[in-house]
Amino acid sequence: xxxxxxxxxxxxxxxxxxxxxxxxxxxxxxxxxxxxxxxxxxxxxxxxxxxxxxxxxxxxxxxxxxxxxxxxxxxxxxxxxxxxxxxxxxxxxxxxxxxxxxxxxxxxxxxxxxxxxxxxxxxxxxxxxxxxxxxxxxxxxxxxxxxxxxxxxxxxxxxxxxxxxxxxxxxxxxxxxxxxxxxxxxxxxxxxxxxxxxxxxxxxxxxxxxxxxxxxxxxxxxxxxxxxxxxxxxxxxxxxxxxxxxxxxxxxx
Amino acid sequence: xxxxxxxxxxxxxxxxxxxxxxxxxxxxxxxxxxxxxxxxxxxxxxxxxxxxxxxxxxxxxxxxxxxxxxxxxxxxxxxxxxxxxxxxxxxxxxxxxxxxxxxxxxxxxxxxxxxxxxxxxxxxxxxxxxxxxxxxxxxxxxxxxxxxxxxxxxxxxxxxxxxxxxxxxxxxxxxxxxxxxxxxxxxxxxxxxxxxxxxxxxxxxxxxxxxxxxxxxxxxxxxxxxxxxxxxxxxxxxxxxxxxxxxxxxxxxxxxxxxxxxxxxxxxxxxxxxxxxxxxxxxxxxxxxxxxxxxxxxxxxxxxxxxxxxxxxxxxxxxxxxxxxxxxxxxxxxxxxxxxx
Lengths: 253, 341
Prior knowledge:
The complex is a heterodimer.
Chain A: H1 10-19, H2 23-34, H3 38-48, H4 52-64, H5 69-89, H6 95-119, E1 126-131, H7 139-150, E2 154-157, H8 164-174, E3 178-182, H9 190-201, E4 209-213, H10 219-225, E5 229-230, H11 234-250
Helix pairs in contact in A: 3-4, 3-5, 4-6, 5-6, 6-7, 7-11, 8-9
Chain B: H1 3-11, H2 30-36, H3 47-59, E1 65-66, H4 74-79, E2 83-84, E3 93-94, H5 117-133, E4 138-142, H6 146-154, H7 156-165, H8 167-191, E5 195-199, H9 209-226, E6 230-234, H10 240-246, E7 253-255, H11 262-269, E8 274-279, H12 281-285, H13 290-303, E9 307-310, H14 320-340
Parallel strand pairs in B: 1-4, 4-5, 5-6, 6-7, 7-8, 8-9
Antiparallel strand pairs in B: 2-3
């Protein structure tokens, strides 16, 4: 069993000791980081600290030195986003800090993405995300997207004020098994149901798992409109996405 | 007591004949729009319609206040933000993904700020309401705080990243934007507003309580000193961690969200600031029935909350029956309690 002393990077050690309180999560992170190289731990430390320029520089350095792009992504960036997600969930950090970490993640991914695309390496799954028609709020959606990308999903972001036919087109075009809708207003929540209806009408409902979220949305509302899942925050969104993708693999539409 | 006297006394934490019913944000609904022929978006841009719709709070729902500013966009529209006006069943919104400012030097309050049609509409609506209702009912205006103006004019993510990267620059921006808050607030007081709601969305769902202290506490103290009317601060979401600071601002009241228990909120603020709220909008007023509304009203009254009402601008499809239940419940509770006394 890995211990805290197996982690070479002092910043990462401190982050896990101070902020990861749940025993299963701590054990998982210790196990993960015990296997990660010091160079990748350094990238992760910079990401958790929101140092986007450092992440940019270290990512380029690692790739130039021959480190596999997938290793940089998984060990340098994604592992660190797990720490960020837990800190956010537990209110050790808030949205400004998460935005800073997400910016750092993007700084690394801009060097990694072209390599992965060229090599044909696939993400966990594609997920289409959008705020529904009539709603211009997107901070919640964007946080979910950051966490989903941080967890290895490829996200097609439709932005705000997304009409049902735009969701349909994006899911079809990208063959996405998963879709997420966000609404911040009670006046726009009903458009989630309208969008799900559109998928039923086009005979595409069984081809995609649909998750919903947003401040006024509840589990009860999600169930009533026929969504496959509801996430109350960005961390739950990721867990839900993983579960729904696993379900989609087991029981394809 | 008249409704107006009741609200103003409660804002000063003085004795009242019963707890006033108030929504410092909006009680506009589609049903009420139909009732008085004042639909969105026109009711946000036409002063007669705005006043007519606002008055239904008093005439139809039995609330003790009227508040004609249904949305949060007037200042941002006058500052030059792009707007999406929507239809009857949705609020107008600022296109925050198309920000108008990037740097502090971009912040400019135009000379015609107060005469912009969307601003003038509010001022005229307040004058109409004052003339129509005299001293019967409390008229509450609304002036957006600088943090919210920051979201609208800089974009939410850029503004929050600025607050992380450069606190000095952020404070400078807030300091410049607060002049818009003061100008519009003063104009509404002059037009006849008894009190002003001041929404400033440094919500616990986005930023920490420490952020409130760092960026807004001193600024809100200044606003309370400069605006000569009762100020009702409104911040959505989880706010228990900043209520002690809010209670130090000198503002008359804090309009608080259902994510905070009334009893906990009251124990933090004590007698330093009045509390207004906090009936849940999406789960109770929008989705459930009068019985659940009554439970939440009673929970607030039993905790000693000074003014009872919805937690925020109510969902436009909320039924009138649920809204009427708020006033009914308050009256019944007081009747029961005076009987038992």
